[in-house]
Amino acid sequence: MKAVCWHGANDVRVDTVPDPKILNPRDAIVKITSTAICGSDLHLFNGYIPTMEKGDILGHEFMGEVVELGSAVKNVKIGDRVVVPFTIACGNCYFCTSDLWSLCDNSNPNGWLAEKIMGHSPSGLFGYSHIFGGYAGGQAEYARVPFADVGLFKVPDGLTDEQVLFLTDIFPTGYMAAENCNIKPGDIVAVWGCGPVGQFAIRSAFMLGAERVIAIDRIPERLQMASDYGKAEVLNYEEVDAGEVLKEMTGGRGPDAVIDAVGLEAHGNDLMGLYDRVKQELRLEPDRPTALRNAIVACGKGGHVSVAGAYGGFLDKFPMGAAMNKALTFKMGQTHVHRYLRPLLEHIQNGDIDPSFIITHRLPLEQAPHGYEIFKQKKDNCIKVVLKP
């Protein structure tokens, strides 16, 4: 089969690789009909996530048709259209039964490696390095889905791939980011980053009752989408001091909650941003936490800080004093996708949201390297790329 494979930093290729096979009675094989390039994939593309190996198959946002089932999988049948959560969960451990699916104890075969870095292992992830299990991803013609009896969700009739594809990651991720803000009626939420996750965080904050959402970015087309589709008020941080303007917009109090939807490759237009970039390029610092720093400092006293952007290691110049003295509450984590699939599917079916608004580019799988390049460089007004095997 054809698959998008990692060959090193800034080097992805579409290779011919062996077809996946059933390895366990709880496995399924899915013929992929739609897959996408995620902002988190760029962290791999840029070489900032360790334990990648040449030939690893990328991709964790994918869906398709069931073509083969292990003997223990009874919740779907061959021919069903399904979406696949990017977090792999067994369904039986303490964390799965506590609705904390991305913390599954049993789905990361390389848990010992994660424990060395993090103390404990999170769940396995599709196509996201060997520290998260080394699983083949879904930017391919076929994928093996372990624990398919809890990890495949049938798509109801009448819904297109593009309406449901983002239930695999970015819609639940944006929703969980907003939910972590503990939004109350009348709250003002500020979102750093208007990429795909930020766009869904904006929509979700309003769905959960926010009175105002203020979105911060530097890319005009992303700010335009946040305004047009998200009905957010927008700030270009290259044109204004976002922290000062947020104070003015909130009567001096600051936002009630802030969301970092950027993560470890945040851009900064000041000396601290340059400092981060130089240290990361020299591999002296794994993450650039510019957006997170700004969000913490801008957040109002007693507010909530929600982190949806991916981080891989340690942060420098973290404003712990501001966080502690302003009594901020932090919530974060890889998304518990299984928790959100059904309620968010209902929002789609009810017409509350059509997630396909985020798509700007549709490409055949063979053009994946081009998709990665325009997404990274933000060329051609690229916000979200969907690949069709």
Describe the secondary-structure layout.
Blueprint: E1 2-6, E2 12-16, E3 28-37, H1 39-45, E4 56-57, E5 61-69, E6 81-84, E7 87-88, H2 94-97, H3 111-118, E8 124-125, E9 142-145, H4 148-151, E10 153-154, H5 161-164, H6 170-179, E11 188-192, H7 196-207, E12 212-217, H8 220-228, E13 233-236, H9 242-249, E14 257-260, H10 271-281, H11 290-298, E15 304-307, H12 320-325, E16 329-332, H13 337-349, E17 361-364, H14 368-377, E18 385-388
Parallel strand pairs: 11-12, 11-14, 12-13, 14-15, 15-16, 17-18
Antiparallel strand pairs: 1-2, 1-4, 3-5, 3-9, 3-18, 5-6, 6-10, 7-8
Helix pairs in contact: 6-7, 6-13, 9-11
Describe the structure.
Helices cover 30% and strands 21% of the residues. The chain contains 14 helices and 18 strands. The model has no long low-confidence stretch (mean pLDDT 95). The N and C termini lie close together (10 Å). The protein has helices at residues 39-45, 94-97, 111-118, 148-151, 161-164, 170-179, 196-207, 220-228, 242-249, 271-281, 290-298, 320-325, 337-349, 368-377; strands spanning 2-6, 12-16, 28-37, 56-57, 61-69, 81-84, 87-88, 124-125, 142-145, 153-154, 188-192, 212-217, 233-236, 257-260, 304-307, 329-332, 361-364, 385-388. α6 packs across α7 (196-207) and α9 (242-249) runs parallel beside α11.
